[in-house]
Amino acid sequence: MIYPKKNSIFERFFQLFVTYQLKKQFYRIHLHIGGLPKDKKILLIANHSSWWDGLVTFYLNNAVLKTDLYAMMSEQGMKDFPFFQRIGAFSVNAASPKHTVESLRFASKLLEEKKSGAYFSPRKRRAS
User: Fold this and answer.
1) Are 119 and 72 in contact (CB under 8 A)?
2) Rg (CA), the chain
């Protein structure tokens, strides 16, 4: 399992990058939420239909939710893009039951510590 190595300076620079990219690509982002309870655990689950899902979640967390967000990401994705560790991503290897259990235990521990979690269901890749 690849564990997160959060870096607040990197997170600030990444937030600037994400904000710039979102403003360049989208006219507006709408968010409809009821009152958010304070000091509660938050688990975000998204059907990962595009790479924007994670960036929008990161942006909304920093702009609105303001929680200590961590995200579960595929082990291969973590290997391909290791900088995600610096913003709180940790790996899951769905092909290995042992690694999956380890990742779920880590996610559970984060939630118990009142840190927020995001899980993006991997999209199915089409055969070429």
Assistant:
1) yes
2) 15
pTM for the full predicted model: 0.80
Q: What is the mean pLDDT of residues 52-56?
A: 85
Pick the most confident of 64-78, 85-99, 109-123.
85-99
Q: What is the pLDDT of residue 64?
A: 82
Q: Give every strand in the sheet of 116-121, ordered side by side.
A: 43-47, 116-121, 69-74, 89-92
Chain centroid, CA 102 distance in Å: 18
Q: CA dist 75 to 15, 79, 95, 107, 117, Å? A: 23, 6, 10, 15, 17
Nearest to 6 by CA among 69, 67, 78: 69
Whether the predicted pLDDT of 123 surpasses 70: no
Dihedral sign of CA atoms 123, 108, 91, 67 in order = positive
